[in-house]
Amino acid sequence: MADSGGIQQGSPAIGAAGSVPAAPGAGGTEGSGAAGGSARIAVKKAQLRSAPRPKKLEKLGVYSSCKAEGACKCNGWKSQNPPPTPPRTDQQSNAVNLQEPCRSCSHTLGDHVTHLENVSEEEINRLLGIVLDVEYLYTCVHKEEDADTKQVYFSLFKLLRKSILQMGKPMLEAQESPPFEKPSIEQGVNNFVQYKFSHLPSKERQTIMELAKMFLNQINYWQLETPSQRRQRVPTDDAAGYKANYTRWLCYCNVPQFCDSLPRYETTQIFGRTLLRSVFTVMRKQLLEQARQEKDKLPPEKRTLILTHFPKFLSMLEEEVYSHSSPIWSQDFLAGATGGQIPIHTGNTHLHSTSPVSVDPSTCGSVSPARKTVLESNPVGEKRKPSEPLPHEENKRPRVVGDIPLDLINEVMATITDPAAVPETSLLSAHSARDEAARLEERRGVIEFHVIGNSLNQKPNKRILMWLVGLQNVFSHQLPRMPKEYITRLVFDPKHKTLSLIKDGRVIGGICFRMFPSQGFTEIVFCAVTSNEQVKGYGTHLMNHLKEYHIKHEILNFLTYADEYAIGYFKKQGFSKDIKVPKSKYVGYIKDYEGATLMGCELNPSIPYTEFSVIIKKQKEIIKKLIERKQAQIRKVYPGLSCFKEGVRQIPIESIPGIRTILRSHQNAWPFMEPVKKTEAPGYYQVIRFPMDLKTMSERLKSRYYTTRKLFMADMQRIFTNCREYNPPESEYYKCANLLEKFFYTKIKEAGLIEK
């Protein structure tokens, strides 16, 4: 393993499935950090199990009662010459003498281990493993400062000590055995994925599954706070219940990660919602904060997943964790029976200022970011010119200089701008934006958007009045549960305006709203598109035009009360339950309606909402082109070596074409680019005595250190061997080592440096 690129503190590196938590009892002292404790124990066990049998008997004799005649009460042999503390690693171990007397009872070592004479080597090794676990727990007991944790360590210490004396298997004595709650955390999260995301395409669903696995992995390696720490942080919490779960977690999940003679369970498989509720808020906050602080250290392939998708995933899961009516925690959960799929189209929808919002299905079925034009707000409905710029276009952010050359960006942009270089996207294609059809219709002049409203100060405009009547008809027809008189009053109210969608001179949809400039927000009232014009992207395009209209008028917040049918639509349009407007700003201006959900949307003045999907499409094309160019560089074929045919017996390694770049550019080389940092992998240099990495090898190549190919290949092999020795087989680093090793030897064979 090389740089961990992850996040330490209370959790393993986000996305690193093979991370290991702090050793129990470390408590911030030496050995607390990732894998130091467990790695050292594993090394010691391997060394002891490979020792001669007399040495093993000497170790077991220390924990074996005396079997000499006369009913000796000595419970463990003690050497006349105890080893120095701490033991010296460079000191040669003396030969074991089974006749050496015990310092306590004077009987020989052989008298203490007579019961082990006919025991198999396998059983001896098992007992030795328990011995080392006992010694480790003894250290933990003396180092641990928390009383509750110390008590658990001491109980486990006595249990393992008894197992050695009785030559039995450690069995935890408890009133309950795992699992402690059903459904488990793992099952609940799986139900959550099925409940919320089963409707997604397979590729997007796979991304959600990766996030779910990542989250479960974090819980399995999460270090719970002690009961005393929790009492200080949450005095009103169920202290007794948390302490019981904490004790179970130590005994069945945490300590067995280091003391493998104890049976080990995954936290997510034996605990349920109760434990998850007690850790979720703190865990979510720490994970997201650490991700933001350590984002530059995250592997590139994990960065987008963790920084963009993971926060949204956690927010949605949090609602289900703390909800009293969430179906995912039912043992009888069935996705089909509990509404496991979120419908792509919501039901009837209507919006108004004094009752909850329901959205018209027309707007729900056609939602997506969209295209150009901001609208004028005059009551006569003058159409905005398409060429009119956004008010904030002059204040665009300066370009952030990155590692991609500007000339390369311009070159790629030129190919993207060329219509011949951009593949045509069918409007029915899965890759096309949902508002693309509406945007094209607007460009061809088929549809128009106008902000209109009634006026008591100006002479009535016949066309505007006809459009207002048309809007009243559309809202009344599409929102049958709303009284017609109520709709008419709001549509013709001079304080309200309506963004109208006009096609062939007639109204086919609109959004009615009321602006509160002094309070900094606008209230959405009605939203609907006539039934025979639905599923064409009009709902999304309407909302995007409304956003740009408000950006022009420097109102950057929408508020609306939504009923159960409308929540899905507004979420797609960027609304959420996290209200950015201070409560003092809107209380008294909009009526609080029982049974409805207040939702808000904060606008970003830098985003051209009606062009957003076009921008995203162009960005995808740019990234695609950059990836293709990078892959072309990686796949570059260097000329073969012909010098051996001419009689040359050996050449300097650095003279092989491409040898310096081919490994560093491989997709699985990222963990091995630089030396491992002690701060990110505590204990690494105690386990790995001869570290190696690609940066060091590159420097050796430049200095002509590799006089023979054997030296070069030995250093490369050391990288792979070190990684597999330090990391568990299921870790990402272990897998990268195997893949890069396979790639390396393939290239070496192609170069003729070893026989195929």
TrEMBL record:
The active site is at E523. It comes from the Eukaryota. It catalyses: L-lysyl-[histone] + acetyl-CoA = N(6)-acetyl-L-lysyl-[histone] + CoA + H(+). Residues 1-38, 347-399 are annotated as: Disordered. Residues 381-397 have a biased composition (Basic and acidic residues). Residues 10-24 have a biased composition (Low complexity). PANTHER family: GH11602P, HISTONE ACETYLTRANSFERASE KAT2B. It is found in: Cytoplasm, Cytoskeleton, Microtubule organizing center, Centrosome; Nucleus. The gene is KAT2B. Pfam families: Acetyltransf_1, Bromodomain, PCAF_N. This is histone acetyltransferase. Residues 347-366 have a biased composition (Polar residues). One of its GO terms (cellular component) is ATAC complex. GO terms for molecular function: histone H3K9 acetyltransferase activity. Its main location: cytoplasm.
